[in-house]
Amino acid sequence: MNILEDDFLNKIAENVAKSCDLENWKFKRHENIKTIENYFGILVPLTVTGRRNESEEELHLLLKLKPETAEDRMKLVLKYLYDTEHYVYTRLFPLFGSCQLNVDDISPKCFYADMQPGHEVIVLQNMTFSGFMRYPNRFLDYHHAIVALKSLAKYHSLSLISIESGKISTENDFVKPYTDTHPVELNIALKLCLESHSQLLKGEKCEKFLRSLAERYNNIRVDSFNKSKLIVFGHGDYWKENILFKYVNEKPTQACILDYQMVQLMSASQDFLTFLLVSVDTKTRMENYENFISAYIKSLDSILIEHNIDTQRIVVDFQHDLKVVAENCVIMAVMAFALWYGLEDQTLVKSKDTTDKVNAEKRFTQTICEILNDLNRIGLVRL
């Protein structure tokens, strides 16, 4: 069914109104707002209004649907990603709720979800109407990074509490660790990207290291989970484009986490470190690395202590895992920056066209070398 057909939108609005106990409801399409299609879904803005308890309510929504133009080889991948986000909103977050844990201040509320073939939709709160917005620059500054890490810590703490309480088992049939074989298409893409772009660092001391990552790829991917200790239902794609910020007096005070398609069992350290590599520049990262760790751990501890979880053990496991996951985080960063600088044309998703490939390659080389040199100075990798 066409996503913009009134019958389709009316049915969605009806289910949203029912879930919110709205009477005399109606919906409004935003004709002046362009439907947005990204790598992993289509976003359609919608407003539903109605009456509840004698007062008028207005719900600003984003309908999230599967991409319409997926290549044949990508259809199974996109189905898995979409199904994962559906699981997070309809199963994982409600399980957090059963532990009296609230995600509403760090994630959009889900009003309705449907997985019937041809009718797949996830209906989310449009956070921009609550004062949240994207950060416009390429890298986050210190204050935005701190706020983002506090939200990540809360998300991880909810996962840890749910696992420790026995509400959620890590032995489940759906959200699994990413390995050297799962998901297949992602691994093909990551390895191709690593092999093809390592040559751009020719003559650099980092080239040999990247080539060794490609050679040891399978072991790195497996070990990043098997040898880690602090396992959570990690976000898997936590970087600045999947975060919205809210401000008070022009200062960031809250961070809202978006796009849960790549949620997986993983080390909390992997979410943390990948975020620092792809969302913060080298100067900010190196000047504030210990501050970033402290802010994350302090936020994690403040919630875990209330649930009688041994925070000393958590800190030790977190520090242990940073070394375990560092090389895997580099692999993810290589793909992230190859996409950002417009150098990908043959892997999981294609980059946007770039008109200055030579300059893009120089920026890519500089960024990856900065990442590797930073990790070497911190002591997480050895060049």
TrEMBL record:
InterPro entries for the chain: CHK_kinase-like, EcKL, Kinase-like_dom_sf
Residue ranges of every copy of the CHK kinase-like domain listed in the record: 122-306
Membrane-spanning intervals of the chain: none
Listed SUPFAM superfamilies: Protein kinase-like (PK-like)
UniProt-listed SMART domains: CHK
Name assigned to this protein: CHK kinase-like domain-containing protein
